[in-house]
Amino acid sequence: MAQQQQTGEARTDAADSEFIVDTEDCEARESAHRERGTARPITVVGNPVLHRECREVTDFGPELAALVDDMFASQRAAEGVGLAANQIGVDLKVFVYDCPDDDGVRHVGAVCNPVLEELPAERRVLDDSNEGCLSVPGAYCAVPRPDFAVVSGQDTDGKPIRVRGTGYFARCLQHETDHLHGRLYIDRLSKRERKDVLRQMAESTPRYETVPGD
């Protein structure tokens, strides 16, 4: 996910024990991934890998670890806050994030095989803030999404995890999970809005290396 337009992971105790803590040692963890990795070009809308559901991660070995390192490096090079594997051309269900919430708290982590959990009605408060995407460079549009999200999946060792987010971070979790199911944020727009977003993209110059769509 693109930055918002300007106008070891420990576990907690008690009731929060089911959620990972992704707010500790963020700089050290992100830097370690990024320094081991190599930035790759970002795949742009139109490329088939972005428009189909990705394969489940089944091998939690060194190749996955190296991919996650490259994803963190690619995310930083593109100045993003979230990145799905298919955004660098890899057909696997894994995303990384380095994203603040609306309180300015930084969250860093990776989720394999993510599933967005259904929210109870009382938690479905929609936020219609602008949304951008590294695979749709230079364009933004308002996209209503719940301001709270819970994603379940696995960490890079294959262990079950749950991640929760509010505000901007909740938007990131939903955006990246969508990617891995072959859905971009522009697929949630009206025809008129989609046309405007594609116009914005055509009129902009990406700040990072890209692989054009077909």
General description of the model:
The protein is an alpha+beta fold. Helices cover 25% and strands 25% of the residues. It contains 4 helices and 11 strands. Helix 1 crosses helix 2. 39% of the residues are buried.
Q: In terms of topology, how is this protein built?
A:
Blueprint: H1 26-36, E1 42-43, H2 62-77, E2 82-84, E3 94-100, E4 106-116, E5 126-127, E6 130-133, E7 136-142, E8 145-146, E9 148-154, E10 160-166, H3 167-180, H4 191-202, E11 210-211
Parallel strand pairs: 1-11
Antiparallel strand pairs: 2-3, 3-4, 4-9, 5-8, 6-7, 9-10
- Poorly predicted ranges: 6-15
Residues in β-strands, percent: 25-35%
Largest sheet: 5 strands, antiparallel
SS element count, helices: 4
- The secondary structure category is alpha+beta
Query: Mean pLDDT score, rounded?
Result: 93
Shape: globular
Strand order of the largest sheet: 2-3-4-9-10
Helix and strand run: HEHEEEEEEEEEHHE
Q: What's the alpha carbon Rg, rounded to whole Å? A: 16 Å
Helix content range of the residues, please? Answer: 10-25%
Terminal Cα span? 21 Å
> What is the β-strand count?
11
Compose a concise summary of this entry:
The protein is of the alpha+beta class.
Which descriptors would you attach to this protein?
214 residues, alpha+beta, five-stranded antiparallel β-sheet, two-stranded parallel sheet, 4 helices, 11 strands, 25% strand
